[in-house]
DNA sequence: CAGAATCCTTAGTGATACTG
DNA sequence: CAGTATCACTAAGGATTCTG
């Protein structure tokens, strides 16, 4: 009997595997960008929209998302090659959620940064 | 002029600083657990609810969340010491969003795992 | 263009021991 | 109890080079 009605995240909880993909810096951005565009995007386009991501990290994020069925990858065997990424239905659902987080982050960034500055100031005081 | 109406995540975008905290494995769980309980939780309680987290990682996650004003930390100067963690108003908002993600992960874990298995099987085929 | 492969640096994680 | 401190280790990330 647990008197606590709250949530417990067990090690083998299947949701944790899913969360590990979503709780990733670049995955969040990829979902965000693809959600914001209804047309499929090419690799370099995607990369242009996510400043600071390296080709390696973006490739990896896209592979993980593809693997989990959130993103589909279409290769057009032309020269030069053309690869397009789009959200699957599953990905669109997830995108809605992660976009909500991104939006919240944007509108509350000031509050968070203020809290952070105050915290850091307090720390500096304590050290002095 | 950009013909693309989509989102771009600039390097200096303030939301990215916020996202870096939320896009963290343990932070998500902490917010989830604290959202699920309306009473404040102690360190070890929190840890019991998040299987597999080390004391170091949990401490770090809690510090980051406290720093960003999402979690408040109350020290009761008793012996033995008693430290309680609770969500701030800001944290409660964020918790709603991250809990939505956790819930989605839980209900869709099967679909994701199926996609993953299919992907891995295809890979194995290609290698053969 | 869209990557794969390589090397290298650093950040994250775990285990252990110690403290107010 | 709720941490801090330290060391060892692994995994993630960056820079660069190469290829169909």
UniProtKB/TrEMBL annotation, chains A, B:
<dbReference type="InterPro" id="IPR036388">
    <property type="entry name" value="WH-like_DNA-bd_sf"/>
</dbReference>
<keyword id="KW-0238">DNA-binding</keyword>
<dbReference type="Pfam" id="PF01638">
    <property type="entry name" value="HxlR"/>
</dbReference>
<keyword id="KW-0805">Transcription regulation</keyword>
<protein>
    <submittedName>
        <fullName>Helix-turn-helix domain-containing protein</fullName>
    </submittedName>
</protein>
<dbReference type="InterPro" id="IPR002577">
    <property type="entry name" value="HTH_HxlR"/>
</dbReference>
<dbReference type="InterPro" id="IPR036390">
    <property type="entry name" value="WH_DNA-bd_sf"/>
</dbReference>
<feature type="domain" description="HTH hxlR-type">
    <location>
        <begin position="13"/>
        <end position="113"/>
    </location>
</feature>
<keyword id="KW-0804">Transcription</keyword>
């Amino acid at each position: 009997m647990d008197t606590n009605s709250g949530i417990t995240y067990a090690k083998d909880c299947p949701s944790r595997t899913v969360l590990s993909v979503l709780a990733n810096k670049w995955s969040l951005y990829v979902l965000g960008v693809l959600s914001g565009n209804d047309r499929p995007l090419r690799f370099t386009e995607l990369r242009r929209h996510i400043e600071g991501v390296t080709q390696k990290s973006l490739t990896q994020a896209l592979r993980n998302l593809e693997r989990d069925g959130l993103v589909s990858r279409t290769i057009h065997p032309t020269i030069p090659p053309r690869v397009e990424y789009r959200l699957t239905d599953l990905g669109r659902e997830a995108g809605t959620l992660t976009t909500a987080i991104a939006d919240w982050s944007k509108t509350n960034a000031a509050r968070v940064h203020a809290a952070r500055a105050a915290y850091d100031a307090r720390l500096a005081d304590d050290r002095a």
